[in-house]
Amino acid sequence: MIAVLKCAENATIGLAGLRNKNCQSLSADAGSSGGGGIPDVNPQYIGSHTIPTRRHRLKLFGCFGELLDVKTSIGTVRGQTVDIFNITVKQFYGIPFAEPPVGALRFSKPLPLKPIKDVIDCTKQKHSCYQNDNFLGPLVPDVSEDCLVLNIWAPNDAKSGNQTATAPLKAVMFWIYGGAYKDGSIFLPTYDGRVLATHDIVLVTVNYRVGPFGFLYGGEETAPGNLGLYDQLLALKWTRENIHLFGGDPNQITIFGESAGSWSVTGHIMSPQSRGLFRRAIMESGAIYMDKDAGILSKTKALAEAKQMAKVFNCSDDSQWLQCLRSIDAKKLNNYTLLDTYPIYDTDFLPINAQHAFKTHNYSADIDIMAGVMRNEGSVLAHTFYPISDTIKTRQDFSDVIQTLPLPGMAEDKITEFYLKDVAVNATNGTKRAFWNFFGDVVITCPTYLFAKDFAVNSPDRDVYFFEWTYPSKFVGPVMGCTPEMGVCHAAEIEHVFGLPVLMKSPDSAFSNSVVNMWTNFAKTGQPMAGTPYKWPRLIEAGAENPVPKFKEINPSTPDHIFDDLLAKTCDGFWKTYYN
């Protein structure tokens, strides 16, 4: 999710010794001492907030090789080859896909980038999008409104530009980061795409606007809301148009994301604007699937919040209030944290909610889906977003916190009874864990599962797979504040999906490699367990009478375990009337 990683930075220590005799010497301004490989860096500075961006990049990616020029719709982009454990992959860093959303374009839909005559340098990091620094802070020091860029990693045998390639076009994976629509960046060490690219796919990661820059709703065409989703959409269209030039198959695109990134994936599944742009989708902990009778944030409330923000910046609420906000310094706007950042229904991008979309068959019904959740989704999320939950000890404490949450149609006493029915009166830790379970169910687990299940029921000819991740995180989790007591927290899978343990040569590298295989197998074939002896049944078996939902457990100790009807009592039971 939003946490990314000093642990990933530590991985650079292990990579510092990588050398490739075929790599070119690094330039002097990059810190080269004249030899190949990455320059020597004092370990005490790894992860330091004062390291220049370029030097930080060098530590992260190790040795560079030949430069690569590819002619695209926006001009010639220049990337380079990089090595990972004697395997060469192609890397294009920070390809612009939109006009900078500044000035009059702030709060507006992104515009396609006009072609550029000069060669575009895509060998180093670009800007991350403006975001509040309360969480990621100095991990994304180089922020700007001019941030709409994407990264591409491709296998070395993938076609580039007009090259003659021996390999056919490869499946494409399109990553959307999480961060509660408040933060995130494709330049975080966690999202290093080299390992995924060694599995014979082309990876695209995309920056999109967050916070008020990405989700302010102005009630008019020039400020339609859902801007971060429109950024993703334009990047997806650019990918469809250009990815064949990098060896990727535009007809084999899998969109995938985690947390808010998974919300975004479901947004594209529902949006008429995204139809036909992708073939498969992977949802990791999140779906825009909430109360059946209302969205999370109505247009009325979103507009009121935007105008309240305008008042804070002394912009009157007359017809010029948006123009006034567009003139405010970006750094000042970035410090405003009271704006809700949620997708908005009844808009061009999201005309209707998911429940209605499935009932009317108004969604991308011709795709396959792989989805899943962590075993203890609510623990670290409750700790992060509702810190008062850390103080819950009694039944009354539980009820008091429940009453602060917007759950229309759900009686507080029924929620309390359901989640505390098996908790002893004096079990203070048990009461707190019960709140974690409740919070995870209502925010992540049930929306993700019920979205996938609704899709499976309404598209019986498509493959839908679901997993429960039961293996604790060793890297992302501790940085997010996930303690052993909290269990298998939100975002536990990210380090394995991107192969961080492989980069670090940790004891989990074999498991991580198997996870990368599952994800890339699904992108290539639609079958996550292709080429393995293990089975992964569909969530809902088409044609079966009273089918029992099947869940794959992902854990290195139980590679062949399948749960039956795992969420019968919660999502299919207690919460059923709330969502459906």
Molecular structure report:
The protein is an alpha/beta fold. It has a domain at 6-366: Rossmann fold, CATH 3.40.50. 32% of the residues lie in helices and 17% in strands. Strands 1, 2, 3, 4, 7, 8, 9, 12, 13, 14, 15, 16 and 17 form a 13-stranded mixed β-sheet that branches. α11 (378-385) packs across α14 (428-458) and α12 packs across α13 (412-420). The longest helix is centred in the C-terminal third of the chain and has 31 residues, at 428-458. It starts with 5 loop residues before the first helix and ends with a helix.
Radius of gyration: 23 Å
The CATH architecture classification of the domain at 6-366 is: 3-Layer(aba) Sandwich
CATH topological fold name of the domain at 6-366: Rossmann fold
Summed over residues and divided by their number, the pLDDT gives a mean of: 88
Strand share of the residues?
15-25%
Q: What is the CATH class of the domain at 6-366? A: Alpha Beta
Give me the number of helical elements: 20
Uncertain regions spanning at least 5 consecutive residues:
1-62
Find the count of extended strands (DSSP E, 2+ residues). Answer: 17
Helix content: 25-40%
End-to-end separation in angstroms reads 27 Å
Q: Looking at the structure, what is the overall shape?
A: globular
Major sheet: 13 strands, mixed
Estimated structural class: alpha/beta
Name of the CATH superfamily of the domain at 6-366: Alpha/Beta hydrolase fold, catalytic domain
In oligomeric terms, what are we looking at? single chain
